[in-house]
Design a protein that fits this description.
eight-stranded mixed β-sheet; binds 5-O-phosphono-beta-D-ribofuranosylamine; 10 strands; alpha/beta; 6 helices; globular
């Protein structure tokens, strides 16, 4: 499936690009995304934030930016396919140009990934393809790497495996704990994710046969670097 993935934001949708963001918890990436859209005045309309957790702190973040949000709890559905089907239907109703997972802590079914193939992205706290899955910072410390980071990638049915759009690298210090390393990576996530999203929605980056390609042309002003480096490096 990976090699057949293609996507470019359709121009006929009009000047405002439509974004749906899925969250489960804290919402610090959501806050960074909403803050950058506002600060840069990018023509991006976050049409809906959806959480699978009613207690997600990110819901208050969405509200503080005046963005509409809703909770879709898995508890009301018999199984994953039923939940994912309902979620897909709700999202499709918003006709998004891009669907962004920002700390959405659920595995998505192949049918869901297929429904949004090419226009579904995630941020993972490691330099993929290293350290997939949970506890990526502990995995990094355990392995003894000198560099760690985060990756924005397309979502495909295989976990943390889709085409890579953007990465940020941070150093790993001898005295690091999971917490100090996670904090250093998170600061870079907050830079990387808004830039990557605007890069796609502006038409600068397009997905061609399973690879993100730089067109060099953007509908929005500004630059959208894909590769970020921590200031200490
Ligand atoms: C981030 O570390 C992100 O990389 C991972 O989940 C975490 C979400 O944090 N996918 P937040 O809810 O955005 O603060």
């Amino acid at each position: 499936m990976r090699e057949t993935l293609n996507y470019r934001v359709p121009v006929e949708y009009g000047p405002m690009k439509r974004l749906v963001i899925l969250i489960s918890g804290r919402g610090s990436n959501l806050e960074a995304i909403l803050g950058r859209i506002r600060a840069q005045a990018w023509p991006i309309d976050v049409v809906q934030v959806i959480s699978n957790q009613s207690q997600a702190q990110g819901l208050a973040v969405a509200e503080s930016f005046g963005v509409a949000c809703q909770v879709l709890s898995p508890k009301s559905f018999p199984d994953r396919d039923a939940y994912d089907g309902a979620l897909a239907k709700i999202i499709q109703g918003f006709a998004p140009d891009l669907v962004v997972l920002a700390g959405f802590m659920r595995i998505l079914s192949p049918a869901f990934c297929q429904a949004f193939a090419g226009r579904l992205i995630n941020i993972h706290p490691s330099l993929l393809p290293a350290f997939k899955g949970l506890e990526s910072h502990a995995q990094a410390l355990e392995s003894g790497v000198g560099f760690h980071g985060c990756t924005v990638h397309s979502v495909t049915p295989e976990l943390d495996h889709g085409p890579i759009l953007a990465q940020a690298v941070v150093p790993v210090f001898a005295h690091d704990s999971v917490e100090t390393l996670a904090q250093r990576v998170l600061e870079m996530e907050h830079q990387l994710y808004p830039t990557a999203i605007a890069g796609i929605l502006s038409g600068r980056y397009v997905l061609e046969q399973g690879r993100w390609v730089d067109t060099g042309v953007s509908e929005f002003g500004g630059d959208f670097p894909r590769w970020h480096v921590h200031p200490s490096l």
